[in-house]
Design a protein that fits this description.
The protein is an alpha+beta fold. The chain is built from two helices and six strands, in the order ββαββαββ. The chain has helices at residues 51-57, 109-125; strands spanning 29-31, 37-41, 70-71, 76-77, 134-136, 152-154.
């Protein structure tokens, strides 16, 4: 008799660039006026990755227009849009800024970490049958009819 087996891997509160030196750019940490982390959590869709720092990280993209899901007001990327179906994709200047009907570009540490996890799972198990992105939405969408806010989204 054969049994179906499921393996579940979870990345809880993904903070890939928090290391021994404490919180760094690229995740949801609030900053003081002097640009130092204040210990609070940003409650927004964008990470903390200013465009000039992006250009330093991806030197070959310096001077390219910001991606369609980069917020100059927030100074970061909407990490819920930063995925691409080609798991080997690396950002190219010719592809920027893209459009909201097109995939993202993998510039954020959050998306790169999830891509690496997916590739590790695929290498270990031979295939990944399902991949679920469960994320907090913040108070931005209301449920039709009762007006309650949607707090979680499954992609």
């Amino acid at each position: 008799m054969s049994r179906d087996v499921a393996a579940l891997a979870a990345a809880r509160r993904l903070e890939p660039d928090r290391g021994d030196e404490g919180p760094a750019r690229g995740h949801h940490v609030r900053r003081r006026a002097d640009d130092q982390p204040d210990g609070g959590e940003l409650n927004r869709r964008q990470n903390d990755f200013p465009w000039p720092e992006f250009e330093e990280t991806f030197e070959h993209l310096a001077g390219a227009p910001p991606t369609w899901y980069y917020s100059t007001r927030a100074g970061g990327f909407d990490i819920n849009r930063d995925f691409h179906p080609d798991l080997t994709y690396e950002p190219r200047a010719a592809d920027l800024p893209g459009a909201d009907a097109l995939p993202g570009f993998y510039p954020t540490q959050e998306a790169r970490t999830l891509r690496a996890l997916y590739l590790e799972l695929r290498a270990e198990f031979g295939a990944v049958d399902e991949y679920v992105d469960l994320h907090h939405m913040g108070p931005c969408e209301q449920i039709e009819g009762d007006g309650d806010y949607v707090t979680v989204s499954l992609d």
